[in-house]
Amino acid sequence: MADKSIIYSRFNLESDNNIAIKTTYQLITKTIMENHQFDAIVVGTGISGGWAAKELCENGLKTLVLERGRMVKHVEDYPTAHLDPWDLPNGGKASRETRERKHKQHRTGYTTQEARQHFFVDDLKHPYNEERRFDWIRGYHVGGRSLMWGRQSYRLSDVDFEANKKDGIAVDWPVRYKDIEPWYDKVEEYIGVSGQNLGLKHFPDQKLLKPMNLNCVEEHLQEQISEKFDDDRLLTIGRTAHITEGTKEGLGRSTCQYRDRCMRGCPYGAYFSSNSSTLPAAEATGNMTLRPNSIVHEVIYDEKTKQATGVRVIDAETKKKHVYHAKVIFLCASAMASASILLQSKSERFPNGLGNDSGELGHNIMDHHFHVGAQATAEGFDDKHIKGRRANGIYIPRFRNLGGKTDNKDFLRGYGYQGGASREDTSEMVAELKYGPKLVDAILKPGEWNVNLLAFGETLPDHSNRMYLDENKKDEWGLPTITFDAAFGENEFKMRKDMQEEAIKMLKAAGYKNVRGYDNGGKAMGLGIHEMGTARMGKDPKTSVLNKYNQIHACNNVYVTDGAFMTSSGCQNPSLTYMAFTARAANHAAKKLKKNA
Amino acid sequence: MKRRDALKNIGLAAGFTIAAPSLLSIFQSCTTNTETWVPKFLTPNEKTVLTDLVDIILPKTASTPAASEVNVPQFIDKYIDEVLSIEDQAITRTAFERLIATLKPNETTPIDQLTEDNYTAILDRYLLVKGDIDIEREENPEAKSMTQSEFLGQLKWLTITGYRNSEQVGENILVYDPIPSAYYSGDLQELTGGKAYSL
Fold first, then answer.
1. A426 chain-B contacts, CB cut-off 8 A
2. Which of A102, A190, A400, A434 is 20 to 30 A from A208, alpha carbon to alpha carbon?
3. Do B78 and A90 make contact, defined as CB atoms within 8 angstroms?
4. Is residue B15 pLDDT above 80, yes or no?
5. Which of A90, A385, A435 sits opposite B188 (nearest CB)?
6. Interatomic CA distance for residues A141 and A147, integer angstroms
């Protein structure tokens, strides 16, 4: 095996120097201009694109990786990673200008903060339309949202894969847990996921690094929940894609330092991102050509061979048009962007968009519904505090509709809780003092222990939840913009009642004070930043877009492996599932190409 | 343990070398310290009032600097200028005018001759604490403008935010732990000596 560290450091060296980058970039561009033929093309460099690039390149395929945004190099392009609040203007608050330019990104309340806003899109430059409100939160750069993701990593189980069939909802998943299990194993071992295995059928064990610690209040809540509830619900530490022991392959990946500045990019490479892990691995093979600033807007379909032959690209900066050819194409641009590319890929055979025989392309949008749960104050821990800032919380796995006494007749499926306990930054006395030395004292002392249980619920697929293209509203590259028309449904709203009630019950059972439930009303989809379902998998080409290997049914050299493929949403954070399915699909594609070669 | 000792020492040293000053001397020192600073949003009168006010809210103590010594007025001026919406800036301007008019014993009182009593009288009367009711708001729930109490509450919050987010307080007064490298819970006194963290 080649000494990867040498190749990795070359990757780094090239990017150390602007002139070197430019030369390399020109060299790559020149090579591309001369030879537009690749084995594989990957569209997108986020969670899925990085994995597709790695697996295809490691299988020996010459792979062109296209990213619509700018280059972001691991560590050196994380300009705010080491900044303290006083190094940032206004303590890091989002400025008026940022809020205006990124008015939709600002709907989260956290993405526009000064330390991280550079990783989120400018909504004026990248507009979309809303028939019903949809919060499309994203970043256009190499690494995509793998740089800013929440890192919670849970597997789906057969409870999820069998759910649609059991309930007669939408279509059945064409796979079961046993098909995906080895791929979950593979990606977890590579990226590093920390947490605790519990041996539950509906919450499968994983390949885990040592768990992060619960704090004293969370340990108390854990005991209380197990003691006071007889439906087997339990609290565990969140499973998160952080290295908690040893190292992992990539561009210098080491253990978590508990700084909680992940969304700025991690200089220690402690959490998984494409930039620190999969893209360097792809680069190390010598088979990857990475081309940033490349907006893919169409997959080219050949009527004779009934296969895709390549993609059309607009250079984001020069606006020049390019065509690149390959034997296999992976769309990993995110659920919405991949569906948009397919909808723009019209041909005689596919007048409504490539692979859209079923009419399901762009439909069945799902996101997890949340912003519902309960908070409380935990008394009796005033003499305790924590060391470190853990970018992780607690997890209460789904305990609803698993059979027996867990069944609830008001709604289908279930939800899990995230959150945890922490001390307020300042004493509660701040609210009771007006001014003077006592107030100074109060703002320098830690406050109450606050406990938060925040539920994340499954959303049912619904054909009427859709995105489509507005050909009359073009962006600055002359491409149609996306219009969203989606909302949470009746099942979600019924579930929310239970999500709040059970959170209140648990906090009360634990004996906490000032227990207060909350629910923002499930206003709009998107804030979970878990867009799914726009090109769902299924067994029947008449009712689904992709087959069980993520191939478009009627054009099987196009794979879609981002959130678009999700047939149902589960209530688990989905990125790990995208990685597992992507790795599986990429190896399927590589095997098929080798057989045909 | 070492960190706690170091913190104690910082507190002790500061306590011995800096005697607690009277409020009047704070006013004098502030006006000199901030003379060179040209605000972006605030008028000269607003600057004077804000500088006086933040030092009454968070005065110098035996071991901690006054708000103006860690550039809280500059923080608030920049915050209003860069963070607030244009609409909120206008509301803030009106609220400032009203506050200044209320502060002055009579219309001709020059702004630099306001006394500590003038400020504390207003804070005692209008700044609300937990459980208090804002009568002005109750009388006019739909008004877009800020009530006196809301404005003073806002200034108190901005003062605390600016103070805690200053380098001096963040690195030397609060417990500064930029690279913790571990996460666990433990005894408050052992971990921080009873203090809060800055990050």
1. 160, 164, 196
2. A400
3. yes
4. no
5. A385
6. 9
User: Phi and psi dihedrals of A112, rounded to 5?
Assistant: -95, 5
Q: How far apart are CA A69 and CA A484, in angstroms?
A: 22
Dihedral angle over CA of A18, A92, A391, A281, nearest 10 = -10
Low pLDDT (below 70) residues in chain A: 1-35
Q: CB A259 to CB B174 under 8 A?
A: no
Q: Which tokens go with A308?
A: 């895709």
Question: Do A366 and A532 form a contact (C-beta atoms < 8 A)?
Answer: yes
Distance CA B73, CA A254 (A): 42
What are the residues whose beta carbons fall under 8 Å from the beta carbon of A257, sequence distance 6 or more?
A268, A270, B179, B180, B181
The pLDDT score that the predictor gives to residue A35 is 63
And the tokens for A468? 């489509």
Residue type, A156: L
The predicted pLDDT at position B137 comes to 96
Average confidence score pLDDT of chain B: 86
Q: Tell me if A443 and B163 make a contact (CB, 8 A cut-off).
A: yes
Question: Rounded distance, CA A118 to CA A139, Å?
Answer: 9
Give the pLDDT of residue A521: 83
Averaged pLDDT for residues B127-137: 96
Q: What is the pLDDT of residue A597?
A: 75
Alpha carbon of B82: minimum distance to chain A alpha carbons (Å): 6
Q: How far apart are CA A363 and CA A465, in angstroms?
A: 6
C-alpha atoms less than 13 angstroms from C-alpha of A160 in its C-beta half-sphere:
28
**Can you tell me the ipTM of this complex?**
0.91
Q: Are A512 and A379 in contact (CB under 8 A)?
A: yes
Find, in chain A, the residue whose alpha carbon is nearest to that of B84.
Answer: A96
Q: What is the interface size between A and B, counted as CB pairs within 8 Å?
A: 155
Residue A444 DSSP SS3: coil
Rounded CA-CA distance B3/B9 in Å is: 10
Measured CA to CA, the distance from residue B127 to residue B124 in angstroms comes to 6
Q: What is the CA radius of gyration of chain A?
A: 24
Interface test with B, best of A194, A266, A435 (most B CBs within 10 A): A435
| Interface contact B58-A440, CB threshold 8 A | yes
When scoring A90, A217, A258, A433 by the number of chain B Cβ atoms within 10 A, the one with the most, hence best to mutate, is A90
CB A260 within 8 A of CB A236: no
- For residue B56, which residues of chain A lie inside 8 Å, CB to CB? 435-436
Give the amino acid at A422.
S
Q: Give A-chain residues touching B78 at CB under 8 angstroms.
A: 89-90
Q: Cα separation of A165 and A148, whole Å?
A: 34
| Residue B102 in this model has a pLDDT that exceeds 90 | yes
Q: Is residue A490 left, alpha or beta, with left meaning phi > 0 and alpha meaning psi from -120 to 50?
A: alpha
- The H helix count followed by the E strand count for chain A is 13, 18
- pLDDT of B122 > 70? The answer is yes
Instruction: Indicate yes or no: CB of B181 within 8 angstroms of CB of A258.
Output: yes
Residue B11 has pLDDT above 50, yes or no: no
Residue of A nearest to B189 (CA): A383
User: Best interface-test mutation with A: which of B79, B160, B167, B183 has the largest number of A CBs within 10 A?
Assistant: B183
pLDDT of residue B23: 36
- The predicted structure's pLDDT at residue A523: 81
Residue of B nearest to A392 (CA): B183
The confidence score (pLDDT) of residue A19 equals: 45
CB-based contact B151:B158 (threshold 8 Å): no
Give, in order, the Cα–Cα distances in Å from A108 to each of A265, A457, B136. 19, 18, 32
Q: From the CA of B74, how many Å to the nearest CA of chain A?
A: 10
